[in-house]
Specification:
- The chain has 151 residues and is α+β, with helices and mostly antiparallel strands.
- It has two domains: 65 residues, Alpha-Beta Plaits (2-Layer Sandwich); 67 residues, Alpha-Beta Plaits.
- The chain is built from four helices and ten strands.
- It is elongated.
């Protein structure tokens, strides 16, 4: 199953702009539609929708979360084995490998290169084979409920 947009959508287009795979279509000021064949279930559409018209695959309406409070990957360099699976998992390419260490003892470690591009999907953390990545709300931002039950 994929995310879906219900009839209270006002066609603002915010979800279209944030969908990393262009799975959302619709005319301006008309209800939009998510193509279930393209949706990767990243949740960006639900976090950006002010109308709460996006429902997750379980039918739960998503709450809007301001972008500065979207979770970001935190990488434990002690656990990371530099496999780069997280880079491949990221739909927006916001991670990169950075060389660390000294000459003769260099390591390539993933880092968040563009925090604004990160959509907080958590795919990098989910795919990490050694659990070296966790998703965390940036410091100074309140923890918020991501979703609520339909009324």
């Amino acid at each position: 199953m994929s995310y879906r947009i219900n009839d209270i959508c006002n066609g603002c287009g915010a979800c279209v702009r944030f969908c990393p795979v262009n799975a959302i279509q619709g005319e301006k000021q008309q209800p939009h539609h998510i193509d279930p064949g393209l949706c990767i279930e990243c949740g960006a559409c639900g976090r950006i929708c002010q109308q709460m018209s996006v429902q997750d695959p379980f039918g739960i309406s998503c709450e809007r979360i301001k972008r500065s409070a979207w979770p970001k990957p935190v990488i434990d360099r002690g656990l990371c084995m530099s496999c780069a699976i997280c880079l491949d998992a990221c739909p927006v390419n916001c991670l990169t490998l950075e060389l660390t260490g000294k000459k003769g003892d260099l390591h390539a470690r993933p880092v968040l290169k563009d925090g604004r591009a990160c959509i907080g999907c958590g795919f990098c953390a989910a795919e990490c084979p050694v659990d070296a990545i966790c998703m965390a709300v940036p410091a100074g931002e309140p923890a918020v409920s991501r979703q609520r039950q339909n009324s």
